[in-house]
Amino acid sequence: xxxxxxxxxxxxxxxxxxxxxxxxxxxxxxxxxxxxxxxxxxxxxxxxxxxxxxxxxxxxxxxxxxxxxxxxxxxxxxxxxxxxxxxxxxxxxxxxxxxxxxxxxxxxxxxxxxxxxxxxxxxxxxxxxxxxxxxxxxxxxxxxxxxxxxxxxxxxxxxxxxxxxxxxxxxxxxxxxxxxxxxxxxxxxxxxxxxxxxxxxxxxxxxxxxxxxxxxxxxxxxxxxxxxxxxxxxxxxxxxxxxxxxxxxxxxxxxxxxxxxxxxxxxxxxxxxxxxxxxxxxxxxxxxxxxxxxxxxxxxxxxxxxxxxxxxxxxxxxxxxxxxxxxxxxxxxxxxxxxxx
Length: 341
Description:
Elements (H helix, E strand, L loop, with lengths): L2 E6 L2 H12 L4 E7 L4 E6 L13 E2 L16 H10 L3 H11 L14 H12 L12 E5 L6 H14 L4 E5 L7 H12 L3 E3 L3 H14 L2 E5 L8 H12 L4 E7 L4 H11 L6 E5 L8 H9 L4 E5 L8 E3 L2 H9 L2 H14 L1
Parallel strand pairs: 5-8, 5-9, 6-7, 6-8, 9-10, 10-11
Antiparallel strand pairs: 1-3, 2-3, 2-4, 11-12
Helix pairs in contact: 3-4, 4-11, 5-6
């Protein structure tokens, strides 16, 4: 079997390269994150189909192709995914992977389908942990109103509760009362707090904090994805400090707006994504789809305003089950198996 390797910055770019070189029927046998992006390994589409039941990831249909209906067996799951906001490209990738397994897609009711579809989608969701030392100094960035300061407070509180010595630095000197709000959080947590007005101030503040702390979290002012000048200024301010970058995007954002933000803040080199305000929408799948398609790893999901309670570590399986609505199905199946024993 002829194997080919494709490397790209994001999963979406890699899949586009595969489709261009091998056609939309190419078989993906492996995808993995690398330091610089994503690696995709393909098998020759003309080779015999694998006999194993493990799923492979198929190529999403190009946007220019006519809209295709999902197979009868997968359609109920696909409809739940679409209602959740998941993109057709991602769902097509899941269905394509299922075609290389022994599950019945041409008819509804195969009991193995929900679990296997969940496993495929779970494999597409990239997650990361904000572990030390990679995230020792981290800047929280994002558009205005996405909950950056509240997210920072939650992360700081969780880290402090875990025994880390945390410091907070803010460069958000634009919003009225922004400094006072964050200072109140810092006082509540009893952690060091500093305000930086210039890039040099920021570097000095970080140096002071690093001397005594395990982790330094930097609050930034919200920037419109369309404000190129402001984003360039933010990049220049952070450049000397070289922090890890955590992007906050709201779950309720329209796909076009979330995409614009993702592309704009990508100039800062995004290391992790926090999906905020998950509790404020019924269709958080649009933001999740963009993370999948662009290979951006999720670290957390926020589900309310309470600090520090309303933030959870991103779990690929839980997200997949929520998106496809398979949690109750899988729980019921597990219960049946338990009673059978």
